């Protein structure tokens, strides 16, 4: 079965992609009749060396994303994973030559088709009297024994675009640029790993992996790597990659040693989430610095992809200060990241958290028995929520992410750890305030924010008194805050429905001689009935409001959780004979 691709046609996808890039970037122009993109200010480059690169499409943003002042002059694109035509390469060389440039350097990744086609175009151009040089970049560090074909050209090629572009912008001549970038290329290595393959438009995936395997040392055309390894943590996989890349017994290793200074590239191969990319970047930085390697610059993003491949490659380039200046030189290329021109290693990465405000002595602090009762209530609430985790998740799947139970369990475990650390505040107001902070930090999601709002607001009326009218006022304040910031109202099929129903019953606490347990029992029953009734409501707020009501035939998980919390509180108070 072929994969789905958002294209107009398989045959035209490479043309359409390049046309789209040029259409959105006024600094680029297409060369008529060819799949070639050039700087729109080409005529201003008279007397400067032109830099042309390219290869198959499917590696975006490479290569056209790196056209601009300080990087490439132009790019020749082939069909997906296919070398560009000799005629188009020659046309690009002629175009930059006719603009008055001082020779052309072809920057070519080491693949047979690219070497042949760019090499043939170079020879034809030289026969026409156009000065053209060519560098073939092979930065693959996968193979421990070098093959006749040499190392494949991978993401490190983008660093060569940057160095050559800075030299050309500085007015350095063709021969000198060729010599210097060739030397730079020998101090560089790249290694990729992927969770699965990619698929060329109109085709099936290029290889298959089982659920517990990842591919190590693969190229950028969907070809398999040097070996398959078992799925592991990001830290372990990154360590394995760096061990392989820097092992002296590996013929294609990067000679990185204690005290070496490097540029690190963490490259998304196309389908990795930004979350995973950040985790890999962190692992790479920690692993390298743990080896005593100084990271002079770290570039993280998508530079050279393999369509939608969910994988990552790491590139290491040994650098000194003169080379760093070329890396840092200004460029207008749209795909080159804007990074600080300072070392990554040695920088302070954390800032001290602000001091907590001093707690004012509270005259409403409960005595020993009441304080122990608070602990029992919290413990019962936690055990209740942990027991409901799977049920709440199942209810939440109808609305999308299915994590309501997980979120509430996270809160329960955080409260349990907090209770282990020491006794909670004896003051009801301080207890609710501390719980608010804890849930905001540990619970996460909109539930954490809503509970945090509720508890913060509910704490205020309890600063002066903790009698039943004050607790009723606390419920009112919490509900008001939830409605103000959460934008939900009773009947919107949210956790508010259960809390609101209970709050209406708890108004009776404001009457003289009110019975705590009798009224709380009514409040819990109303909350449970309201939670059950949410299955017949149309969602008016929250993520569920985007889902067809026909699919929401179960109670709202947030309302179920809120009712369960109230029930747990009631059970403890009843058992204590309050």
From TrEMBL:
EC number(s) reported in the record: 2.7.1.28, 2.7.1.29, 4.6.1.15
Segments forming a coiled coil: none
Protein's UniProt keywords contain Cell inner membrane: no
Keyword terms, alphabetized: ATP-binding, Cobalt, FAD, Flavoprotein, Kinase, Lyase, Magnesium, Manganese, Metal-binding, Multifunctional enzyme, Nucleotide-binding, Phosphoprotein, Transferase
Binding residues for substrate: 56-59, 109, 114
Span of domain DhaL: 372-571
Required cofactor names: Co(2+); Mg(2+); Mn(2+)
Gene Ontology molecular-function annotations: ATP binding; FAD-AMP lyase (cyclizing) activity; glycerone kinase activity; metal ion binding; triokinase activity
Catalytic activity: FAD = riboflavin cyclic-4',5'-phosphate + AMP + H(+); dihydroxyacetone + ATP = dihydroxyacetone phosphate + ADP + H(+); D-glyceraldehyde + ATP = D-glyceraldehyde 3-phosphate + ADP + H(+)
InterPro entries hit by this protein: DhaK_ATP (IPR012734), DhaK_dom (IPR004006), DhaL_dom (IPR004007), DhaL_dom_sf (IPR036117), Dihydroxyacetone_Kinase (IPR050861)
Residue stretches making up the DhaK domain: 9-336
GO process annotations (BP): glycerol catabolic process
GO cellular component: cytosol
SMART domains: Dak2
Active-site residues from the entry: 221 (tele-hemiaminal-histidine intermediate)
Role of this protein: Catalyzes both the phosphorylation of dihydroxyacetone and of glyceraldehyde, and the splitting of ribonucleoside diphosphate-X compounds among which FAD is the best substrate. Represses IFIH1-mediated cellular antiviral response.
Quaternary structure, from the entry: Homodimer. Interacts with IFIH1 (via the CARD domains), the interaction is inhibited by viral infection.
Name the UniProt record assigns to this protein: Triokinase/FMN cyclase
Species of the source: Trichechus manatus latirostris (Florida manatee)
């Amino acid at each position: 079965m072929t994969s789905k691709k958002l294209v107009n046609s398989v045959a035209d996808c490479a043309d359409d992609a390049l046309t789209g890039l040029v259409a959105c970037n006024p600094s680029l122009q297409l060369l008529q009749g060819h799949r070639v993109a050039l700087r729109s200010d080409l005529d201003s480059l008279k007397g400067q060396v032109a830099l042309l690169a390219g290869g198959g499409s499917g590696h975006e943003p490479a290569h056209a994303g790196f056209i601009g002042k300080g990087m490439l002059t132009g790019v020749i694109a082939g069909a997906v994973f296919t070398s560009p035509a000799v005629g188009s390469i020659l046309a690009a060389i002629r175009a930059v030559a006719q603009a008055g440039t001082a020779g052309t350097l072809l920057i070519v990744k080491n693949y047979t088709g690219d070497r042949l086609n760019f090499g043939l175009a170079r020879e034809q151009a030289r026969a026409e009297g156009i000065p053209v040089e060519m560098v073939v970049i092979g930065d693959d560090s996968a193979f421990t024994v070098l093959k006749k074909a040499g190392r494949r050209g991978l993401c490190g090629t983008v660093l060569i675009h940057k160095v050559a572009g800075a030299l050309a912008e500085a007015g350095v001549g063709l021969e000198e640029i060729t010599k210097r970038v060739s030397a730079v290329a020998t101090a560089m290595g790249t290694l990729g790993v992927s969770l699965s393959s990619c698929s060329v438009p109109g085709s099936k995936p290029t290889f298959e992996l089982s659920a517990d395997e990842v591919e190590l040392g693969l190229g950028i055309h969907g070809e398999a790597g040097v070996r398959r390894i078992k799925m592991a943590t990001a830290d372990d996989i990154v360590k394995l990659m760096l061990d392989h890349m820097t092992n002296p017994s590996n013929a294609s290793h990067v000679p990185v040693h204690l005290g070496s200074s490097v540029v690190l590239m963490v490259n998304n191969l196309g389908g990795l989430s930004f979350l995973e990319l950040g985790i890999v970047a962190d692992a790479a930085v920690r692993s390298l610095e743990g080896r005593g390697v100084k990271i002079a610059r770290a570039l993280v993003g998508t530079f050279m992809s393999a369509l939608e491949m969910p994988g990552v490659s790491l590139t290491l380039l040994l650098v000194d200060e003169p080379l760093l200046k070329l890396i840092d030189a200004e460029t207008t290329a749209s795909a080159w990241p804007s990074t600080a021109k300072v070392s990554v290693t040695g920088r302070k990465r954390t800032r001290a958290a602000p001091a907590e405000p001093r707690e004012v002595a509270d005259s409403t602090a409960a005595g020993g028995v009441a304080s122990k009762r608070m602990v029992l209530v919290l413990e019962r609430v936690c055990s209740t929520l942990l027991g409901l985790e799977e049920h709440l998740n199942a209810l939440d799947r109808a609305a999308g992410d299915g994590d309501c139970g997980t979120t509430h369990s996270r809160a329960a475990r955080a409260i349990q750890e907090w209770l282990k650390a020491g006794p909670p505040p004896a003051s009801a107001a301080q207890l609710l305030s501390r719980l608010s902070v804890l849930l905001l930090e540990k619970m996460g999601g909109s539930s954490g924010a809503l509970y945090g709002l509720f508890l913060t607001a509910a704490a205020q009326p309890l600063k002066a008194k903790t009698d039943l009218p004050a607790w009723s006022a606390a419920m009112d304040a919490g509900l008001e805050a939830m409605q103000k910031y959460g934008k939900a109202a009773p009947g919107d099929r949210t956790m508010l429905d259960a809390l609101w129903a209970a709050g209406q019953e708890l108004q009776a606490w404001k009457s003289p001689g009110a019975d705590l347990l009798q009224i709380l029992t009514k409040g819990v029953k109303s909350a449970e009935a309201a939670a059950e009734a949410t299955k017949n409501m149309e969602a008016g707020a929250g993520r569920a409001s985007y889902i067809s009501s026909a699919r929401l035939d179960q109670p709202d998980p947030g309302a179920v959780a809120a009712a369960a919390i109230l029930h747990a509180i009631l059970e403890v108070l009843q058992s204590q004979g309050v």
